[in-house]
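Q: My collaborator sent me two sequences in one message, no labels, and asked for predicted structures for both. Can we handle them in order? The first one she listed is below.
A: Yes, handling them in the order given. First sequence, followed by its C-alpha coordinates:
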Amino acid sequence: MKKLFVCSGFYAGLLPFAATIVNAMRDENTYGIFMCSGKCDYRKAVIPNGDKYLFLNFPESKLKGLLYSIYPAALLKAITEVCKKNNIEVIHLLTEDSVLALHIHQLKRLAKVYYTVHDLFFHEQVYKNVLKKLMRTLLVKKRVTYLIKHTDNLVTCSADQYNYMKKWFVNQHIYFHNFPTLVTDVIKTGKKTMPELAGINNYILFFGQLEQYKGVDILYNAYINNADGFVKMPLVIAGKGYIYFDRDGTKEENVIFVNRYIDDEEIRQLFENAFCAVFPYISGTQSGILSLPYYFRVPSLVSDIPFFKQFSVENVTSISFSNEHPAQIMQKIRELENTDQQKITDAGMEFYERVYDQKSLRDQLSSAYAESPTFQTEAVS
Protein backbone atom coordinates (compact mmCIF):
# COMPACT_ATOMS: atom_id res chain seq x y z
CA MET A 1 0.00 0.00 0.00
CA LYS A 2 1.41 3.36 -1.03
CA LYS A 3 1.35 5.74 1.91
CA LEU A 4 2.32 9.40 2.27
CA PHE A 5 3.34 10.75 5.67
CA VAL A 6 2.83 14.48 6.06
CA CYS A 7 4.85 16.17 8.81
CA SER A 8 4.14 19.89 8.73
CA GLY A 9 4.57 20.39 12.47
CA PHE A 10 8.11 20.54 13.77
CA TYR A 11 8.21 21.87 17.32
CA ALA A 12 9.94 19.97 20.11
CA GLY A 13 8.61 16.43 20.57
CA LEU A 14 6.81 16.17 17.25
CA LEU A 15 9.96 15.68 15.18
CA PRO A 16 11.26 12.55 16.96
CA PHE A 17 7.69 11.23 17.24
CA ALA A 18 7.14 11.48 13.49
CA ALA A 19 10.66 10.46 12.48
CA THR A 20 10.45 7.23 14.48
CA ILE A 21 7.15 6.31 12.83
CA VAL A 22 8.38 7.12 9.32
CA ASN A 23 11.59 5.16 9.88
CA ALA A 24 9.65 2.18 11.22
CA MET A 25 7.32 2.21 8.18
CA ARG A 26 10.05 2.88 5.62
CA ASP A 27 9.87 0.71 2.50
CA GLU A 28 9.54 1.13 -1.25
CA ASN A 29 5.91 2.26 -0.84
CA THR A 30 6.61 4.92 1.79
CA TYR A 31 6.59 8.59 0.82
CA GLY A 32 7.03 11.64 3.00
CA ILE A 33 6.69 15.43 2.96
CA PHE A 34 8.45 17.23 5.79
CA MET A 35 8.34 20.89 6.79
CA CYS A 36 11.67 21.88 8.31
CA SER A 37 13.06 24.85 10.21
CA GLY A 38 16.65 25.73 11.00
CA LYS A 39 16.44 24.07 14.43
CA CYS A 40 13.97 21.29 13.66
CA ASP A 41 15.23 19.61 10.52
CA TYR A 42 13.71 16.27 9.53
CA ARG A 43 16.63 15.72 7.14
CA LYS A 44 18.73 14.80 10.18
CA ALA A 45 16.18 12.45 11.72
CA VAL A 46 14.66 10.33 8.96
CA ILE A 47 16.53 7.53 7.23
CA PRO A 48 16.94 8.35 3.51
CA ASN A 49 14.53 6.59 1.19
CA GLY A 50 15.71 7.39 -2.32
CA ASP A 51 13.72 10.18 -3.96
CA LYS A 52 10.53 9.42 -2.03
CA TYR A 53 10.97 12.14 0.61
CA LEU A 54 10.44 15.84 -0.01
CA PHE A 55 11.75 18.44 2.43
CA LEU A 56 10.28 21.94 2.50
CA ASN A 57 11.71 24.88 4.42
CA PHE A 58 9.50 26.93 6.71
CA PRO A 59 9.67 30.64 5.82
CA GLU A 60 12.30 32.52 7.82
CA SER A 61 10.46 35.83 8.00
CA LYS A 62 7.60 36.19 10.49
CA LEU A 63 5.30 37.68 7.86
CA LYS A 64 5.84 34.85 5.38
CA GLY A 65 5.48 32.35 8.22
CA LEU A 66 2.12 33.87 9.15
CA LEU A 67 0.98 33.80 5.53
CA TYR A 68 1.97 30.13 5.29
CA SER A 69 -0.02 29.41 8.46
CA ILE A 70 -3.06 31.02 6.82
CA TYR A 71 -2.65 29.34 3.44
CA PRO A 72 0.09 26.68 3.01
CA ALA A 73 0.26 26.85 -0.77
CA ALA A 74 3.63 25.11 -1.17
CA LEU A 75 2.62 22.25 1.12
CA LEU A 76 -0.71 21.70 -0.61
CA LYS A 77 0.95 21.71 -4.02
CA ALA A 78 3.53 19.16 -2.87
CA ILE A 79 0.90 16.83 -1.40
CA THR A 80 -1.21 16.97 -4.55
CA GLU A 81 1.72 16.31 -6.86
CA VAL A 82 3.09 13.40 -4.83
CA CYS A 83 -0.34 11.77 -4.54
CA LYS A 84 -1.17 12.03 -8.24
CA LYS A 85 2.27 11.07 -9.50
CA ASN A 86 2.61 8.00 -7.28
CA ASN A 87 -1.03 6.85 -6.90
CA ILE A 88 -0.92 7.30 -3.12
CA GLU A 89 -3.58 5.29 -1.29
CA VAL A 90 -3.12 6.62 2.27
CA ILE A 91 -2.24 10.09 3.56
CA HIS A 92 -1.30 10.15 7.23
CA LEU A 93 -1.04 13.53 8.98
CA LEU A 94 1.36 12.83 11.85
CA THR A 95 2.23 16.14 13.47
CA GLU A 96 -0.93 18.04 14.45
CA ASP A 97 -0.81 19.68 10.98
CA SER A 98 -3.30 22.41 11.85
CA VAL A 99 -2.41 24.35 8.68
CA LEU A 100 -4.22 21.67 6.67
CA ALA A 101 -7.52 21.85 8.56
CA LEU A 102 -9.42 23.92 6.04
CA HIS A 103 -8.11 21.73 3.21
CA ILE A 104 -9.07 18.34 4.63
CA HIS A 105 -11.82 17.87 2.01
CA GLN A 106 -9.27 18.44 -0.75
CA LEU A 107 -6.95 15.84 0.74
CA LYS A 108 -9.75 13.31 1.05
CA ARG A 109 -10.31 13.49 -2.69
CA LEU A 110 -6.72 12.36 -3.18
CA ALA A 111 -6.57 9.33 -0.83
CA LYS A 112 -7.75 7.88 2.48
CA VAL A 113 -6.71 10.33 5.20
CA TYR A 114 -5.56 9.37 8.69
CA TYR A 115 -5.04 11.94 11.42
CA THR A 116 -3.00 11.39 14.57
CA VAL A 117 -4.76 12.95 17.57
CA HIS A 118 -2.10 14.16 19.98
CA ASP A 119 -4.27 15.95 22.54
CA LEU A 120 -8.00 15.25 22.56
CA PHE A 121 -8.17 17.52 25.59
CA PHE A 122 -6.06 20.66 25.54
CA HIS A 123 -3.68 21.02 28.45
CA GLU A 124 -3.44 23.71 31.10
CA GLN A 125 -1.38 26.58 29.73
CA VAL A 126 -0.36 30.09 30.74
CA TYR A 127 0.25 32.43 27.82
CA LYS A 128 2.82 35.20 27.66
CA ASN A 129 0.20 37.67 26.47
CA VAL A 130 -3.31 37.92 25.03
CA LEU A 131 -2.04 37.90 21.44
CA LYS A 132 -0.21 34.59 21.98
CA LYS A 133 -3.37 33.08 23.41
CA LEU A 134 -5.49 34.36 20.51
CA MET A 135 -3.06 33.03 17.90
CA ARG A 136 -2.86 29.63 19.59
CA THR A 137 -6.64 29.43 19.79
CA LEU A 138 -7.32 30.43 16.19
CA LEU A 139 -4.40 28.80 14.39
CA VAL A 140 -4.08 25.61 16.41
CA LYS A 141 -6.90 24.68 18.80
CA LYS A 142 -9.86 25.44 16.56
CA ARG A 143 -8.16 23.89 13.54
CA VAL A 144 -7.17 20.71 15.39
CA THR A 145 -10.75 20.36 16.62
CA TYR A 146 -11.95 20.72 13.02
CA LEU A 147 -9.51 18.07 11.78
CA ILE A 148 -10.63 15.64 14.48
CA LYS A 149 -14.27 16.16 13.55
CA HIS A 150 -13.82 15.93 9.77
CA THR A 151 -11.20 13.20 9.32
CA ASP A 152 -12.60 9.72 8.80
CA ASN A 153 -9.68 7.80 10.32
CA LEU A 154 -8.33 8.89 13.69
CA VAL A 155 -5.19 7.49 15.29
CA THR A 156 -3.94 7.81 18.86
CA CYS A 157 -1.19 6.43 21.09
CA SER A 158 -3.17 6.98 24.30
CA ALA A 159 -5.33 4.18 25.64
CA ASP A 160 -7.52 6.69 27.49
CA GLN A 161 -7.98 8.83 24.38
CA TYR A 162 -8.74 5.72 22.33
CA ASN A 163 -11.57 4.76 24.70
CA TYR A 164 -13.05 8.26 24.65
CA MET A 165 -12.80 8.48 20.87
CA LYS A 166 -14.46 5.08 20.35
CA LYS A 167 -17.34 6.31 22.50
CA TRP A 168 -17.72 9.79 21.03
CA PHE A 169 -16.84 9.41 17.35
CA VAL A 170 -19.07 6.51 16.39
CA ASN A 171 -19.11 7.44 12.68
CA GLN A 172 -15.33 7.47 12.38
CA HIS A 173 -12.68 4.75 12.40
CA ILE A 174 -10.49 4.85 15.51
CA TYR A 175 -7.07 3.19 15.74
CA PHE A 176 -4.47 2.75 18.46
CA HIS A 177 -0.75 2.08 18.23
CA ASN A 178 2.08 2.04 20.73
CA PHE A 179 3.84 5.33 21.34
CA PRO A 180 7.07 5.55 19.33
CA THR A 181 10.33 6.11 21.15
CA LEU A 182 11.66 9.66 21.07
CA VAL A 183 15.21 8.31 20.91
CA THR A 184 16.19 8.78 17.27
CA ASP A 185 19.55 7.79 15.82
CA VAL A 186 20.65 11.43 16.00
CA ILE A 187 19.90 11.48 19.72
CA LYS A 188 21.59 8.12 20.31
CA THR A 189 24.85 9.26 18.75
CA GLY A 190 24.74 12.92 19.77
CA LYS A 191 28.09 14.32 20.89
CA LYS A 192 27.28 17.98 21.48
CA THR A 193 27.73 19.36 24.97
CA MET A 194 25.63 22.20 26.27
CA PRO A 195 27.80 25.25 27.01
CA GLU A 196 25.46 26.25 29.86
CA LEU A 197 26.33 22.97 31.65
CA ALA A 198 30.10 22.92 31.12
CA GLY A 199 31.72 21.17 34.10
CA ILE A 200 28.31 20.43 35.70
CA ASN A 201 26.97 16.91 36.21
CA ASN A 202 25.09 14.76 38.71
CA TYR A 203 22.12 17.12 38.56
CA ILE A 204 18.35 16.84 38.89
CA LEU A 205 16.92 17.27 35.39
CA PHE A 206 13.67 18.51 33.98
CA PHE A 207 13.64 18.30 30.18
CA GLY A 208 10.89 19.47 27.88
CA GLN A 209 9.10 22.50 26.56
CA LEU A 210 8.09 24.72 29.48
CA GLU A 211 4.32 24.51 29.81
CA GLN A 212 2.01 24.72 32.79
CA TYR A 213 0.64 21.19 32.48
CA LYS A 214 4.14 19.77 32.92
CA GLY A 215 4.28 21.14 36.47
CA VAL A 216 7.71 22.78 36.20
CA ASP A 217 6.72 25.25 38.93
CA ILE A 218 6.04 22.37 41.32
CA LEU A 219 9.55 20.98 40.91
CA TYR A 220 11.14 24.44 41.06
CA ASN A 221 9.38 25.39 44.31
CA ALA A 222 9.98 22.00 45.90
CA TYR A 223 13.67 22.41 45.16
CA ILE A 224 14.23 25.99 46.33
CA ASN A 225 12.06 25.52 49.44
CA ASN A 226 13.52 22.17 50.44
CA ALA A 227 13.94 22.16 54.19
CA ASP A 228 15.64 18.80 54.67
CA GLY A 229 19.01 20.44 55.04
CA PHE A 230 20.99 18.01 52.87
CA VAL A 231 23.50 19.32 50.35
CA LYS A 232 21.70 20.01 47.10
CA MET A 233 22.78 18.76 43.74
CA PRO A 234 22.03 21.29 40.97
CA LEU A 235 18.59 21.56 39.38
CA VAL A 236 18.66 21.89 35.59
CA ILE A 237 15.49 23.00 33.80
CA ALA A 238 16.18 22.52 30.10
CA GLY A 239 13.74 23.49 27.40
CA LYS A 240 12.27 26.43 25.57
CA GLY A 241 9.12 28.18 26.70
CA TYR A 242 7.52 30.96 28.66
CA ILE A 243 8.51 30.82 32.35
CA TYR A 244 4.99 31.22 33.67
CA PHE A 245 5.74 31.11 37.41
CA ASP A 246 7.35 33.52 39.88
CA ARG A 247 11.02 32.96 40.56
CA ASP A 248 13.05 33.72 43.68
CA GLY A 249 16.50 34.77 42.57
CA THR A 250 17.81 34.68 46.15
CA LYS A 251 17.36 30.89 46.20
CA GLU A 252 18.63 30.03 42.73
CA GLU A 253 22.28 29.50 43.52
CA ASN A 254 22.13 25.92 42.26
CA VAL A 255 19.31 26.35 39.70
CA ILE A 256 20.21 26.47 36.01
CA PHE A 257 17.64 27.44 33.38
CA VAL A 258 18.54 26.54 29.81
CA ASN A 259 15.57 28.33 28.27
CA ARG A 260 16.09 27.57 24.60
CA TYR A 261 15.49 24.88 22.02
CA ILE A 262 17.65 21.86 22.90
CA ASP A 263 19.26 20.38 19.82
CA ASP A 264 18.78 16.64 19.36
CA GLU A 265 22.56 16.18 19.34
CA GLU A 266 22.71 17.66 22.87
CA ILE A 267 20.15 15.35 24.46
CA ARG A 268 22.38 12.32 24.97
CA GLN A 269 24.91 14.09 27.16
CA LEU A 270 22.16 16.07 28.89
CA PHE A 271 20.70 12.80 30.18
CA GLU A 272 23.90 10.83 30.65
CA ASN A 273 25.28 13.53 32.97
CA ALA A 274 22.11 13.70 35.10
CA PHE A 275 21.61 12.03 38.47
CA CYS A 276 17.88 11.68 37.81
CA ALA A 277 15.09 13.09 35.65
CA VAL A 278 11.89 14.47 37.18
CA PHE A 279 8.53 14.86 35.39
CA PRO A 280 5.99 16.54 37.71
CA TYR A 281 3.16 16.69 35.15
CA ILE A 282 -0.27 17.73 36.43
CA SER A 283 -1.97 16.24 33.36
CA GLY A 284 -1.05 14.31 30.25
CA THR A 285 -2.50 12.27 27.42
CA GLN A 286 0.31 10.83 25.33
CA SER A 287 4.04 11.36 25.35
CA GLY A 288 7.19 9.38 24.79
CA ILE A 289 9.19 11.43 27.29
CA LEU A 290 10.02 8.44 29.49
CA SER A 291 11.72 6.70 26.58
CA LEU A 292 14.64 9.11 27.10
CA PRO A 293 15.58 8.30 30.72
CA TYR A 294 14.79 4.62 30.14
CA TYR A 295 17.13 4.42 27.15
CA PHE A 296 19.95 6.41 28.75
CA ARG A 297 19.56 4.52 32.04
CA VAL A 298 18.77 7.54 34.17
CA PRO A 299 16.47 7.04 37.18
CA SER A 300 13.17 8.85 36.63
CA LEU A 301 10.66 10.32 39.06
CA VAL A 302 7.09 10.87 37.85
CA SER A 303 3.92 12.33 39.31
CA ASP A 304 1.16 9.87 40.11
CA ILE A 305 -1.26 10.96 37.37
CA PRO A 306 -3.00 8.21 35.35
CA PHE A 307 -1.07 9.07 32.19
CA PHE A 308 2.28 7.96 33.60
CA LYS A 309 0.83 4.67 34.77
CA GLN A 310 0.59 3.62 31.10
CA PHE A 311 4.32 4.11 30.60
CA SER A 312 5.85 3.07 33.92
CA VAL A 313 5.68 0.50 36.69
CA GLU A 314 5.43 2.33 39.99
CA ASN A 315 8.64 2.16 42.01
CA VAL A 316 10.05 -0.39 39.55
CA THR A 317 10.84 1.48 36.33
CA SER A 318 10.17 4.92 37.86
CA ILE A 319 9.68 6.39 41.31
CA SER A 320 6.27 7.92 41.88
CA PHE A 321 5.32 10.98 43.97
CA SER A 322 2.22 13.06 44.60
CA ASN A 323 2.03 16.63 43.36
CA GLU A 324 -0.32 17.30 46.25
CA HIS A 325 2.70 16.81 48.51
CA PRO A 326 5.55 18.41 46.54
CA ALA A 327 8.02 17.95 49.40
CA GLN A 328 7.95 14.27 48.41
CA ILE A 329 10.03 15.08 45.34
CA MET A 330 13.12 16.01 47.31
CA GLN A 331 12.49 13.21 49.81
CA LYS A 332 12.34 10.65 46.98
CA ILE A 333 15.53 12.03 45.46
CA ARG A 334 17.29 11.74 48.80
CA GLU A 335 16.08 8.15 49.13
CA LEU A 336 17.27 7.45 45.59
CA GLU A 337 20.83 8.33 46.61
CA ASN A 338 20.78 5.37 48.99
CA THR A 339 19.04 2.80 46.79
CA ASP A 340 20.17 0.40 44.08
CA GLN A 341 19.88 2.70 41.07
CA GLN A 342 20.95 0.00 38.63
CA LYS A 343 17.92 -2.07 39.58
CA ILE A 344 15.65 0.82 38.55
CA THR A 345 17.53 1.63 35.35
CA ASP A 346 17.67 -2.03 34.30
CA ALA A 347 13.92 -2.28 34.77
CA GLY A 348 13.49 0.91 32.74
CA MET A 349 15.55 -0.48 29.87
CA GLU A 350 13.62 -3.77 29.90
CA PHE A 351 10.37 -1.78 29.77
CA TYR A 352 11.78 0.33 26.92
CA GLU A 353 12.67 -2.69 24.81
CA ARG A 354 9.24 -4.22 25.35
CA VAL A 355 7.02 -1.14 24.89
CA TYR A 356 8.88 0.87 22.25
CA ASP A 357 9.16 -2.01 19.80
CA GLN A 358 9.27 -0.87 16.17
CA LYS A 359 7.93 -4.13 14.74
CA SER A 360 4.77 -3.84 16.84
CA LEU A 361 4.41 -0.23 15.77
CA ARG A 362 4.74 -1.17 12.12
CA ASP A 363 2.24 -4.02 12.42
CA GLN A 364 -0.32 -1.85 14.20
CA LEU A 365 -0.21 0.92 11.61
CA SER A 366 -0.19 -1.47 8.65
CA SER A 367 -3.28 -3.13 10.08
CA ALA A 368 -5.00 0.25 10.50
CA TYR A 369 -4.31 1.23 6.90
CA ALA A 370 -5.63 -2.09 5.61
CA GLU A 371 -8.81 -2.15 7.70
CA SER A 372 -10.35 1.19 6.80
CA PRO A 373 -12.83 1.45 3.89
CA THR A 374 -11.09 2.00 0.59
CA PHE A 375 -12.17 5.59 -0.09
CA GLN A 376 -14.30 8.29 1.50
CA THR A 377 -14.68 11.61 -0.22
CA GLU A 378 -17.07 13.32 2.17
CA ALA A 379 -16.29 14.53 5.67
CA VAL A 380 -17.92 12.84 8.63
CA SER A 381 -20.39 15.29 10.18
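Q: And the one she listed second?
A: Here it is, processed independently of the first:
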Amino acid sequence: MTPTHRLKRQERENRYLKRAGMAALAVLVAAVLIGQARRPRATPITNPTERLEFQGFSILPPRGERWFIVEPQTAPVPPWKWAVVFFKVVAKIHSIHAWVMTTDLRYVADVTSKSRTELLQDLASAGLEYENPRFKPIDVKTSLDECLGYDCVRYKQVVEVHSPRDFSGSVLIMIREGFIVPLPHSPTSYIWFEYSQRFPRGQKPFPIEAELEPFLTSLAFTPPR
Protein backbone atom coordinates (compact mmCIF):
# COMPACT_ATOMS: atom_id res chain seq x y z
CA MET A 1 0.00 0.00 0.00
CA THR A 2 1.36 3.40 -0.98
CA PRO A 3 1.79 6.22 1.58
CA THR A 4 -1.04 8.12 -0.15
CA HIS A 5 -3.43 5.18 0.22
CA ARG A 6 -2.46 4.73 3.87
CA LEU A 7 -3.10 8.42 4.54
CA LYS A 8 -6.51 8.32 2.88
CA ARG A 9 -7.44 5.19 4.81
CA GLN A 10 -6.41 6.83 8.09
CA GLU A 11 -8.43 9.95 7.26
CA ARG A 12 -11.54 7.84 6.57
CA GLU A 13 -11.07 5.99 9.84
CA ASN A 14 -10.62 9.20 11.84
CA ARG A 15 -13.73 10.75 10.26
CA TYR A 16 -15.75 7.68 11.19
CA LEU A 17 -14.55 7.72 14.79
CA LYS A 18 -15.32 11.42 15.04
CA ARG A 19 -18.85 10.88 13.68
CA ALA A 20 -19.31 8.01 16.12
CA GLY A 21 -18.30 10.20 19.06
CA MET A 22 -20.41 13.13 17.91
CA ALA A 23 -23.42 10.89 17.42
CA ALA A 24 -23.07 9.67 20.98
CA LEU A 25 -22.67 13.22 22.20
CA ALA A 26 -25.78 14.38 20.36
CA VAL A 27 -27.72 11.66 22.13
CA LEU A 28 -26.15 12.62 25.44
CA VAL A 29 -27.26 16.23 25.06
CA ALA A 30 -30.78 15.01 24.38
CA ALA A 31 -30.55 12.83 27.48
CA VAL A 32 -29.34 15.70 29.65
CA LEU A 33 -32.43 17.62 28.58
CA ILE A 34 -34.60 14.52 28.87
CA GLY A 35 -38.19 15.00 29.80
CA GLN A 36 -38.28 18.68 28.95
CA ALA A 37 -39.99 18.37 25.58
CA ARG A 38 -42.24 15.57 26.82
CA ARG A 39 -42.37 13.44 29.94
CA PRO A 40 -40.35 10.25 29.45
CA ARG A 41 -41.56 6.83 30.42
CA ALA A 42 -40.00 6.26 33.85
CA THR A 43 -39.74 3.21 36.08
CA PRO A 44 -38.73 3.74 39.72
CA ILE A 45 -35.79 1.72 41.01
CA THR A 46 -37.26 -0.31 43.86
CA ASN A 47 -34.45 -2.83 44.33
CA PRO A 48 -31.00 -1.27 43.87
CA THR A 49 -29.30 -4.59 44.69
CA GLU A 50 -30.78 -6.33 41.62
CA ARG A 51 -28.31 -6.53 38.75
CA LEU A 52 -29.32 -5.39 35.28
CA GLU A 53 -28.22 -7.83 32.57
CA PHE A 54 -27.04 -6.78 29.11
CA GLN A 55 -25.20 -8.41 26.23
CA GLY A 56 -21.79 -9.30 27.65
CA PHE A 57 -22.04 -7.50 31.00
CA SER A 58 -24.21 -6.59 33.98
CA ILE A 59 -24.38 -3.60 36.34
CA LEU A 60 -26.14 -2.30 39.43
CA PRO A 61 -28.28 0.89 39.36
CA PRO A 62 -27.50 3.95 41.47
CA ARG A 63 -28.57 3.76 45.09
CA GLY A 64 -30.68 6.41 46.80
CA GLU A 65 -34.07 8.07 46.68
CA ARG A 66 -35.95 9.17 43.57
CA TRP A 67 -33.89 7.31 41.00
CA PHE A 68 -35.68 6.15 37.86
CA ILE A 69 -34.89 4.16 34.75
CA VAL A 70 -36.10 6.32 31.88
CA GLU A 71 -36.74 5.72 28.24
CA PRO A 72 -34.24 7.62 26.05
CA GLN A 73 -35.90 10.42 24.13
CA THR A 74 -33.78 9.91 21.03
CA ALA A 75 -32.23 6.90 19.32
CA PRO A 76 -28.43 6.86 19.12
CA VAL A 77 -26.81 6.78 15.72
CA PRO A 78 -24.82 3.60 14.99
CA PRO A 79 -22.40 2.32 16.10
CA TRP A 80 -23.57 3.47 19.58
CA LYS A 81 -26.49 1.80 21.37
CA TRP A 82 -28.24 2.67 24.60
CA ALA A 83 -27.99 0.09 27.37
CA VAL A 84 -29.76 2.06 30.12
CA VAL A 85 -30.43 5.63 31.31
CA PHE A 86 -31.00 6.57 34.97
CA PHE A 87 -32.50 9.89 36.07
CA LYS A 88 -32.92 11.79 39.33
CA VAL A 89 -34.45 15.21 39.99
CA VAL A 90 -32.84 17.16 42.83
CA ALA A 91 -34.75 20.41 42.29
CA LYS A 92 -36.80 22.02 39.53
CA ILE A 93 -33.74 23.13 37.60
CA HIS A 94 -31.24 20.58 38.96
CA SER A 95 -31.14 17.08 37.50
CA ILE A 96 -28.76 14.13 37.42
CA HIS A 97 -28.29 11.45 34.79
CA ALA A 98 -26.30 8.25 34.71
CA TRP A 99 -26.15 6.11 31.63
CA VAL A 100 -24.41 3.30 29.80
CA MET A 101 -23.89 2.99 26.05
CA THR A 102 -22.16 0.29 24.03
CA THR A 103 -20.49 0.19 20.64
CA ASP A 104 -18.92 -2.36 18.34
CA LEU A 105 -16.43 -1.01 15.84
CA ARG A 106 -15.84 -4.30 14.05
CA TYR A 107 -17.20 -3.00 10.74
CA VAL A 108 -15.09 0.15 10.72
CA ALA A 109 -12.53 -0.22 7.97
CA ASP A 110 -9.03 -0.76 9.38
CA VAL A 111 -10.03 0.32 12.87
CA THR A 112 -8.19 -2.68 14.28
CA SER A 113 -4.96 -1.15 12.99
CA LYS A 114 -5.13 1.11 16.05
CA SER A 115 -4.28 -0.04 19.54
CA ARG A 116 -6.99 -0.08 22.17
CA THR A 117 -5.28 2.79 23.93
CA GLU A 118 -5.47 4.90 20.76
CA LEU A 119 -9.12 4.00 20.22
CA LEU A 120 -10.03 4.86 23.80
CA GLN A 121 -8.40 8.27 23.47
CA ASP A 122 -10.06 8.92 20.09
CA LEU A 123 -13.53 7.98 21.32
CA ALA A 124 -13.26 10.11 24.45
CA SER A 125 -11.91 13.14 22.56
CA ALA A 126 -14.67 12.98 19.95
CA GLY A 127 -17.38 12.54 22.57
CA LEU A 128 -16.31 15.66 24.47
CA GLU A 129 -16.66 18.05 21.53
CA TYR A 130 -19.72 20.21 20.81
CA GLU A 131 -21.18 21.50 17.59
CA ASN A 132 -23.98 23.43 19.31
CA PRO A 133 -22.64 26.89 20.30
CA ARG A 134 -24.86 26.95 23.39
CA PHE A 135 -22.49 24.40 24.97
CA LYS A 136 -19.26 26.08 26.04
CA PRO A 137 -16.64 23.85 27.71
CA ILE A 138 -14.91 25.48 30.67
CA ASP A 139 -12.57 22.68 31.68
CA VAL A 140 -11.84 19.12 30.58
CA LYS A 141 -9.48 16.45 31.87
CA THR A 142 -8.87 13.02 30.34
CA SER A 143 -6.46 10.34 31.43
CA LEU A 144 -5.62 6.74 30.66
CA ASP A 145 -6.32 4.66 33.73
CA GLU A 146 -7.38 1.25 34.98
CA CYS A 147 -11.10 0.69 35.56
CA LEU A 148 -12.09 -2.43 37.47
CA GLY A 149 -8.89 -4.13 36.38
CA TYR A 150 -9.04 -3.13 32.69
CA ASP A 151 -7.41 -0.37 30.67
CA CYS A 152 -9.77 2.57 30.23
CA VAL A 153 -9.91 6.30 29.65
CA ARG A 154 -11.47 8.53 32.31
CA TYR A 155 -12.68 12.07 31.84
CA LYS A 156 -14.26 15.00 33.63
CA GLN A 157 -15.70 18.00 31.83
CA VAL A 158 -17.37 21.20 33.00
CA VAL A 159 -19.62 22.95 30.47
CA GLU A 160 -21.72 26.10 30.45
CA VAL A 161 -25.12 25.50 28.84
CA HIS A 162 -26.56 28.78 27.59
CA SER A 163 -30.32 29.15 27.27
CA PRO A 164 -31.37 25.49 27.31
CA ARG A 165 -34.69 24.83 25.66
CA ASP A 166 -36.50 24.18 28.95
CA PHE A 167 -35.07 27.25 30.76
CA SER A 168 -34.63 29.90 28.10
CA GLY A 169 -32.38 32.77 29.12
CA SER A 170 -30.69 30.78 31.90
CA VAL A 171 -27.08 29.66 32.11
CA LEU A 172 -26.59 26.22 33.60
CA ILE A 173 -23.46 24.34 34.54
CA MET A 174 -23.16 20.74 33.37
CA ILE A 175 -20.57 18.45 34.91
CA ARG A 176 -19.81 15.23 33.04
CA GLU A 177 -17.70 12.41 34.45
CA GLY A 178 -17.21 8.94 33.12
CA PHE A 179 -15.03 6.32 31.54
CA ILE A 180 -14.85 4.13 28.46
CA VAL A 181 -13.68 0.54 28.89
CA PRO A 182 -13.27 -2.30 26.36
CA LEU A 183 -15.06 -5.63 26.64
CA PRO A 184 -12.38 -8.24 27.34
CA HIS A 185 -13.99 -10.88 25.10
CA SER A 186 -14.38 -8.61 22.07
CA PRO A 187 -11.42 -6.67 20.62
CA THR A 188 -13.70 -4.06 19.00
CA SER A 189 -16.44 -3.56 21.63
CA TYR A 190 -16.55 -0.78 24.23
CA ILE A 191 -18.79 0.27 27.13
CA TRP A 192 -19.28 3.94 27.97
CA PHE A 193 -20.28 4.88 31.53
CA GLU A 194 -21.19 8.47 32.33
CA TYR A 195 -22.96 10.49 34.97
CA SER A 196 -23.75 14.15 34.68
CA GLN A 197 -25.63 16.82 36.53
CA ARG A 198 -26.76 20.26 35.55
CA PHE A 199 -27.63 23.14 37.85
CA PRO A 200 -27.87 26.94 37.74
CA ARG A 201 -24.57 28.79 37.46
CA GLY A 202 -23.54 30.02 40.89
CA GLN A 203 -24.96 27.04 42.75
CA LYS A 204 -23.08 23.94 43.92
CA PRO A 205 -23.39 20.40 42.56
CA PHE A 206 -25.31 17.82 44.55
CA PRO A 207 -23.02 15.41 46.51
CA ILE A 208 -23.89 12.34 44.49
CA GLU A 209 -20.76 10.18 44.80
CA ALA A 210 -22.15 7.77 47.43
CA GLU A 211 -25.30 7.11 45.40
CA LEU A 212 -23.36 6.52 42.19
CA GLU A 213 -20.56 4.36 43.59
CA PRO A 214 -22.53 1.07 43.29
CA PHE A 215 -23.30 1.89 39.66
CA LEU A 216 -19.74 2.90 38.75
CA THR A 217 -18.04 -0.05 40.45
CA SER A 218 -20.53 -2.81 39.66
CA LEU A 219 -19.51 -3.67 36.08
CA ALA A 220 -19.20 -7.45 35.68
CA PHE A 221 -18.47 -9.09 32.37
CA THR A 222 -20.41 -12.16 31.31
CA PRO A 223 -19.58 -14.75 28.63
CA PRO A 224 -20.91 -13.88 25.18
CA ARG A 225 -24.22 -15.53 24.37
